[in-house]
Amino acid sequence: MSLWTRFPLLKGYALVSPAVLLMVLALISPLLLLVGISFTVETGSNDEWAFSLANYEFFFEKSHYVNSLGRSILISTMVACATVLLAYPAAYFIAFHVQQNKMLWLIMITLPFWTSYLLRVFSWKLVLGYNGVVNSGLMWLELIKQPLDYILYNTNAVVLTLAHAWAAFAILPIYVSLQKIDKSLIEAAYDLGENRFRTFMRVTLPLSMPGVVAALLLVFIPTVGDYVTPKLVGGPKGLMIGNLIQAAFGRLDNWPLGAAISVISMVTVTLVVCLYLYGIDRARRLMV
Amino acid sequence: MSGPPGKFNIGWLRGYTVVYLIFIYLPILLLPIFSFNDGIYVAFPMSGFTFQWWAEMVSQPGMHKALWNSIAVAVPVSLISTILGMMGAKALTSYPLYGARALTGMFTLPLVTPFLILGIALLITFKNYGINLSLFTVGVGHVLICVPFSLFVLLSRLESFDRSLEEAALDLGETPWIVFWRVTFPINMPGIVASLLLTFTISFDEFLLAFFLTGDASTLPIFIWSQLRFPVKLPSVLALGSAILVVTVFIVVVAELLRRKGSTRSTGKVI
Predict the structure, then answer these.
(1) Based on the domain organization, do A7 and A113 belong to the same domain?
(2) CB of A64 within 8 A of CB of A196?
(3) A37, B171, B174, B264: which could join B178 in a potential S-S bond, CB 3.0 to 4.6 Å?
């Protein structure tokens, strides 16, 4: 009797093992190495390393770094909220009001998400630039005399651009959770005399909360680490923690410091996510 | 009665959704529109129609090399990711594995970790083991983010696949290997092709990881990034970007149609 027939599950583990091996080698162990390196400093010129907390001390001594992390959390929170608020009505429309060609609508709304991230972000620079589409268009229409210089290179530009770039990540989970709602619950609320607003607030919205929460996190977590958008449209005031990490690995060539900033960011993001989840849970209990 | 109760005003919602679609599409559409504009600036009024920038883009020597590099990365990446994704999806759907939930959780990790973090973690790893940066290291990064995509596309496909067909073939005396190639593979072909196309697109367009993991050889997005510094090059970058957009959109539409074809049990599953 062969090994395969004696342990039928073995084959399943064998099938999944290459993907698991990849995750261990290219994800888990690199992340552990990243954490490890963050606790080192170069002691000599010839690649000697020693354990140290210096990178962490350095980070927390520089208000510049701490502020940048705080600002990134704030910007990403704004992005997550803006993306979800903008996406919810569209997801609602597709889930409840599109009867035919639902797939077509979904494909249409998610299609831009597959196109190059770099190009999508860059196109906003063209839109919002000093001599960009909005300014030149408004001047051409003689609605303004001078180009508006406050629309690019600031936090708002970063929020707008990211809310655009991550739209699909908000639409899909919200759509799925709305789609799952048993329609008879909504009808029941109506039959019991609730108005539209209260039905939405007390039935539809709470039932779609899993999707909303997923969307918030799916947008919040990755955007904290973005470095392209702040660089292209953020200007000096819109720079985020990702830019500092990138600089540590590039211009500054101080990898342990970059690793330490990354670890601090990941830990902070995790804590903030826990905080948000707790807050949302409390809010939901109050709402229903 | 216009529609079931409990809904907001449909006209208002439809209007909003259309505006939202315009918001999503308009910035991207600027690229092709202004790639034909006879002027260096992306600004109104447009000054006339020209093919000049497209001609300039095609004749750029660095572009050809970068295009070839991107293809040389994306083709193996899509093949390897889809093979690993298929094996993983098959294991998770056909065998009651212990820790299946933990495994699924692990496979979502690359998608919810900022790509910047993945990029530098891999960069440190390659440096640590003395592996020089090249197209290979970019490929490793791309396989890492493409396997989860492939796995989840194929998982939803295999979940709706009637396994009794496989069992029937096994009962009729076929070996598991033949059953896979003659039953499982053909029936799930649309999902497999969709996975190949989607992972190709992801790798082809990926910038954040490639930025850290590429050596001297640059992929197309890295090439575009390097061109963005020169305002004079902007129009030809627009032309290049438009060409990439057209190809991407075509590939993704085909992939999405394939993916949703056959798996018509509309469970509301979208990923």
Answers:
(1) no
(2) no
(3) B174
Residue B2 has pLDDT above 70, yes or no: no
Q: Are residues A135 and A261 in the same domain?
A: yes
Q: A45 burial class (0-12, 13-18, 19+ CB within 10 angstroms)?
A: exposed
B45 contact residues in A (CB cutoff 8 A): 136, 140
Q: Is residue A50 part of a domain?
A: no
Which domain range does residue A5 map to?
1-38
Look at B121 and A124 and tell me if their CB atoms are within 8 Å: no
Q: Under an 8 A CB cutoff, do A112 and B85 touch? A: no
pLDDT bin (cut points 50, 70, 90) of residue B271 is: very low
Q: Which domain holds residue B163?
A: 61-260
Helix B234-260 vs helix B189-205: angle between axes, to the nearest 10 degrees?
160
Structural domain count of chain B = 1
**In which band, very low, low, confident or very high, does the pLDDT at B70 lie, cut at 50, 70 and 90?**
very high
Mean pLDDT (chain B, rounded): 85
Q: Are residues A194 and A105 in the same domain?
A: yes
Where residue B66 sits, what CATH number does that domain have? 1.10.3720.10
Q: Phi/psi zone of residue B134: left (φ > 0), alpha (ψ -120 to 50 degrees), beta?
A: beta
Residue A71, pLDDT above cutoff 50: yes
Q: Are residues A271 and A155 in the same domain?
A: yes
Cross-chain residue pair A190–B5, CB shorter than 8 Å:
yes
Which helix (DSSP H) or strand (DSSP E) does residue A51 occupy?
A: strand A49-51
pLDDT per residue as tens digits for the range B148-207? 999 998 988 888 777 788 888 888 888 888 888 888 888 888 889 989 999 999 999 999
Which residue type occupies B24?
I
Find the closest chain A residue to B4 by CA distance. A187
Are A4 and A131 members of one domain? no
Residue B5 banded pLDDT, cuts 50, 70, 90: very low
Chain B residues near residue A23 by CB distance under 8 angstroms: 106-107, 109-110, 144, 147
What is the per-residue pLDDT for B257? Answer: 83
| Distance of alpha carbon A78 from alpha carbon B6, whole angstroms | 30
8 Å CB contact of A259 and B269: no
